[in-house]
């Protein structure tokens, strides 16, 4: 308690304690967090220490790259470090000295949570997450931060035939250190509408470069600028026109987004779970708005890529994180563990 005296009155200022987590970050990724008075903020689970060059931070910056590095204006190979939230998912059982076990993409949304598509993990029992990767050679991946996944939760209503509610949350074995080529992406406000965002959004991934080219991951992380269109007026109408009236059953107008539609500008096979991010002009940060789900071949004019609509799942994500941490009522956010508990 701090007492301020004056000739008029004595003012008592009461500090309210709030539980928040510690983060280990480099100074550029800490948004005044080290200035927080411990009487005001009571952090939880403090690390014994942070690695050399890192500091304890209470308020990390999300959605920014080191040195405010921006994505390249040209599509193709991504600028190294420009997407520090992109996660390389590795099937531990498929990993050998000659193969890196690439399983798909994901996105770092919290110091110990990665968001991805459920279909990327449905046949995997042991998953690793690699962060900070650009090139995908074994030598380069070995230099990155690597984590075992200790818990995987899939949306309760996930349908592997239609890919409805195709979303999953992965919990890492320990907290990520933010710095260099690793940082969180921002989570958008719940239910924010990103339809008709025509410029600035990008999808990243290591998936195939052609629909009939079955080699993945690519040697390096790729990026593509994509406009987000109106899900019903543009996307559903296009699929119905090209595939027939039953195509409307494929789309969930609330929980899915559509992007792309131009020749050779698209995500592709094995990009599943990878993030579609959009910039916020006011904060100059990037938020994840979509996760790669499905499409018709790759980069076909008039066929849009379909993405999980992340803002529509924000409440589920928040609730599921709390549930996995033992802090919330799991019944309020239906999810099932994967692999199922025996």
As an assembly, this protein is single chain
CATH superfamily placement of the largest domain: Trypsin-like serine proteases
Mean pLDDT: 85
Strand content: 25-35%
CATH architecture of the largest domain: Beta Barrel
Question: Helicity, in percent?
Answer: under 10%
Strand order of the largest sheet: 7-16-15-18-19-20-17
Tally of separate domains? 3
The computed structural class is mainly beta
The low-confidence runs, each spanning 5 or more residues with pLDDT under 50, are 1-19, 33-44
**How many strands in all?**
21
Question: What is the alpha-carbon Rg in Å?
Answer: 21 Å
CATH topology of the largest domain: Thrombin, subunit H
CATH class of the largest domain: Mainly Beta
Largest sheet: 7 strands, antiparallel
How far the N terminus sits from the C terminus, by CA atoms, comes to: 51 Å
How does the overall form come out from the CA principal axes?
A: globular
- H/E element string? EEEEEEEEEEEHEEEEEHEEEEHE
Tally of helical segments = 3
Helix/strand layout:
Blueprint: E1 2-5, E2 10-13, E3 18-21, E4 23-25, E5 41-44, E6 55-57, E7 76-77, E8 86-91, E9 102-110, E10 113-116, E11 127-131, H1 138-141, E12 145-155, E13 168-172, E14 177-178, E15 202-205, E16 222-225, H2 231-243, E17 256-260, E18 275-280, E19 285-294, E20 304-309, H3 310-324, E21 335-337
Parallel strand pairs: 3-5, 4-14
Antiparallel strand pairs: 1-2, 4-6, 7-16, 8-9, 8-11, 9-10, 10-13, 11-12, 12-13, 12-21, 15-16, 15-18, 17-20, 18-19, 19-20
InterPro entries: Peptidase_S1_PA, Peptidase_S1_PA_chymotrypsin, Peptidase_S1A, Ser/Thr_Proteases_Immune/Dev, Trypsin_dom
GO molecular function, one term: serine-type endopeptidase activity
Domain Peptidase S1: 64-322
